[in-house]
Write a structure and sequence with these properties.
Blueprint: H1 21-42, H2 46-49, H3 54-65, H4 67-71, H5 81-92, H6 98-124, H7 128-140, H8 155-168, H9 178-194, H10 201-210, H11 216-238, H12 250-264, E1 276-278, E2 282-284, H13 290-308, H14 311-334, H15 342-362, H16 365-379, H17 387-390, H18 396-409, E3 414-416, E4 438-440, H19 441-451
Amino acid sequence: MSAAEAPVESRAPLTVAGPRWWPAAVVGVAGAVISLLRLWLGNHDALTQVIWAEDGVFPLCVEKAGFLTCLTDPFAGYLLVLPRLVAGFVAWLPVEHWAIATNLLAALFAGLAVAASFAIVRRFGLGWVSSTVIGLLPVIAPVVGLEAINALGSSYMLLLYVATLALAFPARGTSVRWPSTVAIALLLLLTTLTIPTGGVFLALILVQVVRRVIPRTSALVWTAVIVLGLIAQWFTASNAAKPRVITASRESFDGWVNSVPDTILTFWPGMRLAPYDYFGVFPVTPLTITGALVTLAIVIGGIVLVVRGGDERVGIGLLLLTGIVVGAVPAIIGGSNNRYFVVPLLLWSAAAMVALDSVIRRSRPWVVACVALLVLAVWWPSIPASWFRTMPAPPWTAEVTRVEDSCRADPAKQERIIFSPYWPPNWGDALAEPTHPDLPCLTVWSWIDDAG
C-alpha cells in the first residue's frame, strides 16, 4: 500500500500554516459565492429585497435601544450573540441597504466557516476532495436551501458544524499550540453564547481527553469557556420576559424520530417515506418503525466507533452522536422543524465523507469527476434556494418606503415593520421589546433626516 493510500490514522497530521493557507482561502471564497448564488438562483431580487426574519429585527432593535442593550436581549428565551454582534454593524448603515448588507455579511460568515472546516480536516490528513466537500457542505447540501442558506440568524448552524469538526478531529502532538487553543476557545465561547446546545461539546472534550489526543490544559480552557457560555445562557433564559416554551412530550420525541429518515432522504430531492398505491392499484405502506431503526443505528454506530475506534473512527462516531444530540434537543422540547435537522445532516454527511476518504484517494480522477457530476445532477433541483427563503414578502425597499410615507403623514404614530417571509407572525406577539417589530416614527424620522 502506498503512502497516499494509507488510512488517515497512520498519516502524520498536515499543516495549513504558511503558504498552505491559500487552499482554504480559495475554498472559502467559493463557499461564499455559492451561498449568494443559491439565493440569486431562487429569486434574482433576493439579494437586494429580502432581509430575513430576525436578520432585520436585530438591527431594528439596535436602532431603537442601542447595541449593548440588544446584544444581551433574549431571543426565543436565550442568547443569540453572533447575529446580534453583526446587527450592530448593519444598523450603522442606511436602512435601505440593510438587505444587501445582511446578505453579503451572511455570505462572508459562510465563507469563513467553509474555509475553517476545510482547514481542520485537511490538517487532520484527509485528501483534497474529501476536505473540499466537507468544507462546502454548509452551502451545498440540499436541506440548507430550504431556509438556512445565507441567513445570519442561522449562523449558529455554521458555528456548531465547525466547532464539532475542530473537536472531533483535533490537532495532535506539537501542532497543538496556544494559538490553536485560544482560537478554538474563542470559537467554543462564541458558539455557546449563540446557541445553548453548544453544551454538547463538553462530552466531546471529555472523550478526547480520555483518549489523550488533546492536552489537559487546552481541555480545561475549552471547558471553562463553554461553562461560562452556558451560565450566560442560563441567566438569560431565567430572566427572559417571554421565556422559551418547553413542550417536551412523547409526541414530540416520536415526531423527531419519525422525521429522521425523510430528512436524510433530502439528499435525493423528492424522495420520502409515505404510503402510496403501486401502479395505482397495490397499496404499499412504509415500516412504521423505520425512523426508530435509523436513529438507533446512528446512535449504536456512533457509540461503537467512539469506544473501539482509532482517531478517524472516533471522529466519525463523534460526528454521528453530536448530530443526534443537536437535532434531538430542540426538536423534542419545541417540536420538529426543518432547521433542527440541518446541522445533523451536515455532520452525518461529513462523517460519510471521512469514511469514504481512503476510497476516494484510491479512485481514478475520472471516476471521482463522474460521481461528482452525478451528485450535482441529482441535487440540481434543490440548488436554487426555496421560494420560501427567496420570495420578498414584502420587498425591502417597498417596505421602507411604506413606513417612511406613513410616518411623514403622522409623526406621532407607531409603525410596525415587516420582514420576509412576512415576518414576524402574529404581528410579533411572540416577541418582547426591544427585539420587536414595533417602530416609533421618531426613529423613522432619524432615517429620513440622515437620508436628506
